[in-house]
Design a protein that fits this description.
α10 packs across α12. This protein has a six-stranded mixed beta sheet. Strands 7, 8, 9, 10 and 11 form a five-stranded antiparallel beta sheet that branches. With 415 residues, the protein is an alpha/beta fold.
């Protein structure tokens, strides 16, 4: 079998992505497939049906992670793995996560129709609740699988309305029977959109990230004093929103003076009682700090917390700030990164090294075995928005690189 002559079916990959994008589709061309919602269940059902049609051995664990296993000649050796996530942001895009799962499905389809016999089993994984947009923190399915988070604690995580992750897993029928637990693997490859502007700006087809930045999230609560907006003089107000606004601007200013490559964002802010004629009493907001240099991220948070204390004192407000989650820096396997570069170049695809500013399940997979990612360009560098777009040819190119990496890592006959 001419292994190197195999290619994915670009039209079929496009149709899979278009079909998945119809699940949870929003009017503005995006998707709303929050983890463990009915839309997520529909996407899961579709994936399970596709895996079943390929004759793969399907396992769903008690975190709802879905695995499709294609047997190899030798059942006793470590499998090769690939995959990503099906859940999305509430106003998400059609490619984030979806490309990694549909790309892996396309690779499985090529292996099957080409009757490829691999030495090693090949496993497709769809990880539960990667986004962190419904249940925090992010990457919950892969974190429990890798042993990085306690399953009972994660099961108890509530969404904004108080529903727990476990209740929702059971409600949609995806609390599997097999215990969520890691196993050794030979290699894990994840195909993903870059979600940034670098590949497009450089005109490169394939990104080979060296790893993922460290990612810290903090919860900040500012408490002031509610009052009637009319009779209350401006002097002496204890306006929690004005104090929080100054803190938000301090977050925005941080990277310009902190040095390094940090990014700092306030993405979520809630005001109470949130009424036009009441002086804001309580504000809760998040701070997301990311950077390759984790010590710099930590020092920057200490500096920021000090500024917050000063602002709160000036406004007569109380402050409570705490770290809600952190994922340390992830470094991918140099050997797998080399394979990605070599296969891309053999396909005539230009490559570029970079670092992922976005978090991924690979942060947890990398702690279990050799892991690497294959990036393809995001048009306009946009992601986590309905405007998220990647060219079909780029999707197929990334999937071809994934196919070759999997063929090689799984040891196909004719080697
Ligand atoms: O936060 C992230 O970067 C990922 O989308 N969960
Ligand atoms: Mn993703
Ligand atoms: Mn995402």
């Amino acid at each position: 079998m001419d292994r190197d002559g195999l290619r994915v079916n670009a039209r079929r990959l496009q149709r899979s992505l278009e079909s998945l994008a119809r699940i949870g589709a929003t009017a503005d061309g995006g998707v709303d497939r929050l983890a463990l919602t009915d839309a997520d269940r529909q996407a899961r059902d579709a994936l399970v049906a596709w895996l079943d049609r390929l004759g793969l051995r399907i396992t769903i664990d008690d975190m709802g992670n879905i695995f499709g296993l294609r047997a190899g000649r030798d059942e006793g050796v470590r499998p090769v793995m690939m995959g990503s996530h099906l859940d999305s942001q509430s106003r998400g895009g059609r490619f984030d996560g979806a490309l990694g799962v549909m790309g892996a499905l396309e690779v499985m389809r090529v292996l099957e129709e080409s009757r490829v016999v691999t030495e090693r089993p090949v496993i497709l994984a769809a990880w539960t609740a990667e986004e962190g947009s419904r249940f925090t923190p992010s990457k919950l399915g892969s974190a429990v699988w890798a042993g990085d988070l306690d399953k009972e604690w994660v099961w108890g995580r509530p969404d904004r309305h108080g529903a727990t992750l476990l209740e929702e897993l059971e409600r949609i029928g995806y609390k599997g029977v097999s215990p969520c637990a890691r196993w050794p693997f030979q290699a894990y490859y994840e195909l993903h959109i870059e979600q940034g502007p670098l590949l497009e700006a450089a005109g490169r087809a394939i990104g080979v990230p060296a790893g993922i930045v460290s990612l810290h999230v903090y919860d900040v609560h500012v408490s002031g004093e509610a009052n009637q907006v009319g009779p209350t003089p401006m002097e002496g107000r204890r306006d929690a929103l004005v104090a929080a606004a100054e803190m938000v601007l301090a977050v925005r200013a941080l990277p310009s003076t902190a040095g390094g490559d940090m990014v700092a964002t306030v993405g979520m802010l809630e005001v109470a009682p949130n009424c036009y004629n009441v002086i804001p009493e309580d504000v809760h907001f998040t701070v997301d700090l990311r950077g390759w240099d984790e010590a710099l991220v930590e020092r920057s948070w200490e500096r920021l917390a000090g500024e917050f204390r000063g602002v709160a004192a000036r406004h007569g407000c109380r402050l409570h700030a705490e770290e809600s989650s952190r994922t340390g820096r992830t470094e991918f396997d140099p050997g797998l990164m080399r394979r990605i570069t070599d296969h891309a170049e053999a396909l005539g695809l230009s490559t570029m090294s970079l670092v992922s500013g976005a978090g991924h399940d690979t942060a947890h997979l990398a702690g279990v075995g050799p892991t690497a990612m294959i990036f393809v360009p995001s048009i306009g560098g946009r992601s986590h928005t309905p405007a998220e777009e990647t060219g079909w040819a780029d999707c197929a190119a990334g999937a071809d690189v994934l196919l070759r990496c999997i063929l090689e890592a799984s040891g196909t006959s004719g080697d």
